[in-house]
């Protein structure tokens, strides 16, 4: 698709997303009209945001893509990145519609973006940009309209500025319009580790379903040791798994007897390099993908498991913490070799499910304890994992994957909502 609503949208990412959507529509036997709806956003808003940078005005380009709201308010992050395009933003918003649908939460999908390298801005300039984004899009946002959250390049502080700006314009506090806010400003402590925790609940559920025993005693390797990877390692270890490898761009630490995850996190947060961990063997960054492990969690970036290295992967279960870490060619190879992949759309949904829980708290001006919130998140992740497993066993298509099952479930829920509303 080279243009949407008259705007140019060349993007390989968008083309790939539409291919994935088309495959799922075919596997699930959906009507063509379902593809027609989901292959384009309902609304795209492009805005100019003037900010005084180093004394002179720079005008930044921003977008909000409101992809589909059949299931509820649009929901998805805001990305600050120098190379983001409208086409990429549409792809990301499309994936949010599917992820939120699969998660079983009452949200449609959306995504926002600003073409900027946030690292080049001073704090005050970044604040002005965040506030300018909200001023430009105020009428399109709202707790029951469109609820943004952080994504690449944005964080809880930026959400705090945004919720403040929105509340100022509204003339009253409206906490539920942004999620993943700081704990002190209507946020929830579980948010920090929600994605990594969710990945491990999904891993535990699939281990039980596939092999009859959970993570206890299983060997786990984690590739990528940022927010997702560190907390996945932490919860895997807490649930009794043996974390045998952790890796970041500095290298892999491998210890078949198990790594002290608290120590590894402490070292990573102190020096920025996991390779400074005292002990274990020191290997190359990608070696965490190839070590002897029962479960592999790719939690770094996209396309890490691809045609050139897939034959070296030894794990029997791959749980995608990162978005898009397994290429389609690699997935085909792994599927033929009996490896199960728990897809990103299911495995890393803990963050957005936590956003939903924060929104529910904010709408009622109440808070759950950390334990209660985590318990709710865990139950949703476990339940969703089981639903996907059941769907997978129902699919009669040759070489169907768990990803196919997840996407079919996601589309089914949106399709039902669109039918009930009389859209299709
Ligand atoms: N943080 C979330 O809530 C969240 C939610 C959903 C999906 N994700 C996805 O998870 C992935 C990681 O996100 P994050 O927030 O943890 O990012 P992050 O920046 O905190 O961490 C990324 C980590 O990956 C490592 N890394 C990058 N390239 C590597 C390589 N080639 N080899 C080894 N390590 C490498 C980095 O050193 C870093 O430790 C992304 O794909 C992201 O889209 C994150």
Outline the structure in words.
The model has no long low-confidence stretch (mean pLDDT 96). This protein starts with a strand and ends with a helix. By secondary structure, it is of the alpha/beta class. It has 13 helices and 14 strands. Among the domains are: 137 residues, 3-Layer(aba) Sandwich (Rossmann fold); 155 residues, NAD(P)-binding Rossmann-like Domain (Rossmann fold), CATH 3.40.50.720. The site of nicotinamide-adenine-dinucleotide has 21 residues, from helix 7 and strand 9.
Topology (SSEs and partners):
Layout (H helix, E strand, L loop, with lengths): L2 E2 L2 E2 L3 H16 L4 H7 L4 E11 L2 E13 L5 E8 L4 H18 L5 E7 L7 H15 L8 E5 L5 H15 L23 H18 L7 E5 L3 H12 L3 E7 L2 E4 L6 H11 L9 E3 L11 E4 L18 E3 L8 H9 L3 E3 L1 H4 L2 H14 L6 H25 L7 H20 L3
Parallel strand pairs: 5-6, 5-7, 8-9, 8-12, 12-13, 13-14
Antiparallel strand pairs: 1-2, 3-4, 4-6, 9-10, 10-11
Family: Belongs to the Glu/Leu/Phe/Val dehydrogenases family.
GO biological process, one term: 2-oxoglutarate metabolic process
Subunit structure: Homohexamer.
In short, what is this structure?
The chain has 13 helices and 14 strands. β8 (219-223), α7 and β9 form a beta-alpha-beta unit.
Count of helix runs: 13
Instruction: Provide the succession of SSEs.
Output: EEHHEEEHEHEHHEHEEHEEEHEHHHH
The top-level CATH class of the domain at 193-347 is: Alpha Beta
Can you tell me the residue ranges where pLDDT is under 50 for at least 5 consecutive residues? none
- Find the structural class using helix and strand composition: alpha/beta
Largest sheet: 7 strands, mixed
Task: Evaluate the radius of gyration.
Answer: 21 Å
Number of strands: 14
Label the overall shape. Answer: globular
Residue-averaged pLDDT, rounded?
Answer: 96
What is the chains' assembly state? Answer: single chain
Ligands bound here?
Answer: nicotinamide-adenine-dinucleotide
Q: Let me know the CATH homologous superfamily of the domain at 193-347.
A: NAD(P)-binding Rossmann-like Domain
Site (Important for catalysis): 151
Domain Glutamate/phenylalanine/leucine/valine/L-tryptophan dehydrogenase C-terminal: 187-422
Pfam family, one: ELFV_dehydrog
Subunit structure: Homohexamer.
